[in-house]
Amino acid sequence: MTNGTTTSTAPVQAGAVPAADNKTVFAAIDIGASSGRVMLGRVSPASGVALQTIHRFPNGVVELDGGLRWDFDALFAEVLKGLAAAADVARGNGERIVSIGIDTWAVDYGLVNDAGELTTVPFSYRDERSRATVERVHAVIPSEKMYATTGLQYLQFNTVYQLASEPNLDGVQALLIPDLIAFLLTGQRRTEATNASTTGLFDAVEGKWATDFLDALGLPRNIFPPLIQPGETVGTLLPTILEQTGLPADTAVVAVGSHDTASAVAAVPAQEQHFAYISSGTWSLVGVELNKPVLTEPSRKANFTNERGVDGTIRYLRNVGGLWLLSECQRAWAAQGFTQSLPALLDSAAALPAGGPQINADDPAFTAPDHMPDRIRAAVRNTGAVLPDRPAAVVRCIMDSLAAGYARTLADAERLTGLSTGVVHIVGGGSQNRLLCQLTADATGKTVIAGPVEATAQGNVLVQARAAGVVTGGLAELRALVVAGEELVRYEPAQEVSDVAS
Predict the structure, then answer these.
(1) Which of 15, 24, 145, 445 has its CA 20 to 30 A from that of 115?
(2) How far is CA 265 from CA 25, 103, 130, 202, in A?
(3) CATH classification of 24-260, choosing from 1.10.10.10, 3.30.420.40, 3.40.50.2300, 2.60.40.3760?
(4) SS3 readout for 424-487
(5) Which residues of the chain have pLDDT under 50?
(6) What pLDDT score was predicted for residue 18?
(7) b/e map of 206-241 (b: 16 or more CB within 10 Å)?
């Protein structure tokens, strides 16, 4: 287990970010379910955000102690390696890293005791342990009541169900993964609000913990540390971290949208008042941005979530299957000796005729790893169709299914919110997938604007830059900086791709 760390629950430090100048840079720790990286961000009001990848590393679940878990010690070691490399690069350029922001996936956590020790290796949301607790939780808190308070989409791996499966929570706190990393860097225990909103124990209207739910489920009221908002300072680095990384003593850890989707949505290059977005990666997060949650029964039945965004916005969205399906198929084919590059594979898929078989891409049957091509073909057989045993056919099925799922989800979002959107912004890794972008434009009948690929890291860095005073303004001003610094691509329904005019 990770070594113990001095801990504090003192009030959030104010003004701990060093003053900015033209040599100011920001470090972004951005970790997804399959990989992570440490990046340096340079922000200019004139030219936007420039990112430099310093260190990339793999991430993934491991089978340990009877479950699927994250190799967190290895993950944190890679974070430190990346920060040390970032410090070297900054010094070599005569720059100084004034702050660090952390974003990762949501819902998972580590249990930390009073001595600051991680008591068990954190479980992955892909583990099945929480499935058995869903009925027990809803026997105490009916799903209708839970949604009316939290506005959270039902997913069997939501934090509330994971915590309900824990055998013993005496003397520990649950730190969500980005908060756990921040704790190990600073010794300060906090829960960042955008990630807190994914737990199923957060009041979507009041913006605070739903303590009555904690009580009803027999969970300690202090099971989570106090809340912190994006842009507030968690703390400065511990002496041991300074020694291992070579970072300046006044380097601050600043809370950003620590749920990676919150950071990604903050960097959506929207110039429209109403827009739709798809944060496309391992998962696809499909929705619209609101000023207040939608907690209606139709919204619950449609399984939409109301998660916090930067500046108190609401990310009204639904989780849809994502490029996990494709990456798992590639992994399976590589093991069989098939090594065609992804661009060539997508070109082959694009050459196939439209109207082929589709699957429900967000079916829980596709959550677990391994044997993905076989599972996709089995799902197609269950529809009465047949999917040829060729990689290109499987890839086309995945792309058509994702695009159709996006279209259904966006139509539901507009119906449930009363909004009308004419543009869909695709950010993240999926924005590079020309086939997926074009099929999405065709399926939705809307203009698709693709980019930036690194939206999550850009949102992370922009919140830090604003905290340091390098830039000012709200989300509209931050997004204008993304537009200024990115080459975006436009896809029109059933038409050719063209570059967005700058």
Answers:
(1) 15
(2) 22, 13, 28, 20
(3) 3.30.420.40
(4) EEEECHHHHCHHHHHHHHHHHCCEEEECCCCHHHHHHHHHHHHHCCCCCCCHHHHHHHHHHHCC
(5) 1-15, 496-502
(6) 64
(7) eeebbeebbeebebeeebbbebbbbbbbbbbbbeeb
Q: What is 268-451+472-502's CATH superfamily?
A: ATPase, nucleotide binding domain (3.30.420.40)
268-451+472-502 has the same fold as 24-260: yes
Structure tokens at 223: 């099971």
DSSP class per residue in 11-75: PPBSS-SPPP-TTEEEEEEEE-SSEEEEEEEEEETTTEEEEEEEEEEE--EEEETTEEEE-HHHH
CA 123 to chain centre: 17
Selecting among 127, 179, 203, 260, the annotated active-site residue is 260
Q: How far apart are CA 391 and CA 189, in angstroms?
A: 47
Distance (Å, whole) CA 436 – CA 173: 41
Between CA 164 and CA 136 the distance in angstroms is: 8
Q: Find the helix packing angle between 72-92 and 177-186, rounded to 10°.
A: 60
Q: Is 73 labeled as catalytic in the residue annotation? A: no
How far does Cα 162 stand from its chain's mean position? 18
Which of 263, 377, 368 lies closest to 321, judged by CA?
Answer: 368
- Give the number of other Cβ atoms within 10 Å of residue 154's Cβ: 15
- Each domain of the chain, given as residue ranges in start order, spans 24-260, 268-451+472-502
Cβ pair 435, 284 in contact under 8 A: no
Quote the CA–CA distance of 466 and 477 in Å, as a whole number: 10
Structure tokens at 374: 């076989």
Q: Output the pLDDT for position 362.
A: 84
Q: At 139, is the secondary structure helix, strand, or coil?
A: helix
199 three-class SS: coil
Query: Residue length, the chain?
Result: 502
CA distance 148 to 152: 9
